[in-house]
Amino acid sequence: MGIGRTGDAPSAPAGAEGAGPHRWWGLVVIALAQLMVVLDATIVNIALPSAQHDLGMTDGNRQWVITAYTLAFGGLLLLGGRIADLVGRKRTFVIGLVGFAAASALGGAATGPGMLFGARALQGVFAAVLAPSALSLLTTTFTDPRERSKAFGIYGALAGSGSAIGFIVGGLLTEYLNWRWCLYVNVPIAIAAVLGAFALLHDRPGRTDARLDVPGVLLGCGGLVAIVYGFSEAEPRGWTDPLVLGLFAGGVVLLIAFVWWQNRAPSPLLPLRIVKDRNRAGCFLTMMLAVIGMFGLFLFMTYYLQVILGYSPMKAGLAFLPLTAAVITGSTQISARLLHRVAPRVLMVPGTLIAASGLLLLTRMTVASSYTTEILPSLLLMGLGMGLTFMPVFATATAGVPERDSGVTSATVNTAQQVGGSIGTALLNTIATTSTTAYLAAHLHSPADKATVVPEGVVHGYTVAIWWAAGIMLLAGLVAGLLVTAKAPGHGARAGARVAEPAA
Question: How far apart are CA 62 and CA 252, in angstroms?
Fold first, then answer.
């Protein structure tokens, strides 16, 4: 690629999209929107106690502030990806930004729990429209393998560190302004991204002749929502509750029916050729497993720092800053420099092993652990590992996809990420709660012991769940090593041609 007239023709559409003078500023716009979507999954976590007090939420329903967002986001991403292909990526991107800002303003102005839950669900709906169009715009904007590696390095850093940035921003806004600003802050970000999109991003019109696969939408999205909802209900109800089992069974049946229908649909929501590709399937599964493991860190460290060590919201948020720096370093300084030279699994497998080692260090924490000597090394290892893993996953999963499928492929990557986060939250929280209950039953003999035994029991529950998270992270590395067999994208002209071909 790059020799002869193919690489030099200025009139080629690939050149227009992939070599525009403002494409790096376009990346800033795309990255800004993606950061807003990713950090919104965690930005309200630290603010949740304040919101619960202000709006009178019960302990039983406060989880819906988080779950309403991840349910709508994870369950509707495939639909959002197909809409991006049909309507046009830039148009879908702008619609998603405007809707997300409006839903954020509604949530910030909430006067009761129901209004906040509804606004968070609406945020998830528009995030499901926004995220796949952002990733597919990135895919079609950067077609040169080396530039693509750099662009995905920045994108992967935001995908991996966005949750941690959400904790930091949430802590600062809650402590110095009000919990409502954790939602209001999205409005100016979205306005800036919309203005940037109109000025800097370019896209072809959508395929107006194509049809939306309505049965596929109902079966696929319904199956995902049922399974994610089942995991969210497993923590308060128990794994053997009839509702939980019914949701899991119903979700599996719907997904089987979805696969059956996709083989027969005239315009399938998810063309099965996308997931039949060994490398993409490996990337989707690696992403889901890695995010399940990663939430073992986010979920428990937030409570550990504030409840056990007594950190303020701001201090707890800033405690995640080294993790964010490590993710960015691993993604932009290591993965982005090496991806065009080495096979993706050469980065993904060590990345998951490093992240798992960080989780294993955390299993040694106690009620009196030192942040500097015991928590900080774990955060750095986890961040570095995730930086090495996320960037090649995003780049490999979307490489060489025909332009007509780039939106739905991007949506599938994001679906794996969101479903993994939802499953991780419910699964690991249930394990931690069960372990804590068993510890207290065995060690709490009198009310006088409560002050010391209860914190020890809580930390014991965290460490048991983190053991599981480390095991799941190791499983992600095994999947990456066995399934992702793609070569280095920068090797040979053929690799470059595969990336550029969809836009040509």
Answer: 27
